[in-house]
């Protein structure tokens, strides 16, 4: 399989970690949706020019993180990272949803604050994004265990979404972590000690 994108993207990274934990071989093609030089190459794979895009062994192309990860679980039932059914599945999906929504806001802040020229900054919008990201981080922090992972002794899909979020925030706008999220930081440190996760860490 071929994965298109860069590990700086928390969504590309989540797919890469998922592939690694399921022991699936893949090749990373580093293309950035924000790089004009990469745009034609990316559009040749995904006309929407978004990452991640995953080219399967049969040539089919999958896009969007949630769809890719769901397919990976559906085709690797012995190594699912989201429970197959019941309350455990519901809870895991909800944790992923909170992490993904918070990640969306963290990505939006990068475009608004880090990439947009300062003379075009919209202060109120940036303040709203900061509020949303820190609100999400706080919600995640409140639900984290003191030890281990959200998935128990081993990471599940919600651990991957959470680690991808924290490391992205730390890489792009670390001031967002100033309120202090000790359990979140500790969870990421535990996860990144695993090569399947840490080897994909950006930076």
Outline of the structure:
Helices cover 54% and strands 6% of the residues. It has 203 residues and is mainly alpha-helical.
Characterise this structure:
The chain is mostly helical. Helices cover 54% and strands 6% of the residues. It has 8 helices and 4 strands. Strand 3 and strand 4 (61-63) form a beta hairpin. Helix 1 (10-21) packs antiparallel against helix 6.
Major sheet: order of its strands?
Answer: 2-1-3-4
Structural category: mainly alpha
Following the backbone from N to C, one meets helices and strands in this order, namely EHEHEEHHHHHH
Give the beta-strand count: 4
**What's the N-to-C terminus distance?**
24 Å
Compute the average pLDDT: 96
Number of helices: 8
Beta-strand share of residues? 5-15%
In terms of quaternary structure, the protein is single chain
Q: What radius of gyration results from the CA coordinates? A: 17 Å
Morphology = globular
What fraction, in percent, of the residue positions are helical? 40-55%
Low-confidence region ranges = none
Report the biggest beta sheet as strand number plus sense, adding barrel if it closes: 4 strands, mixed
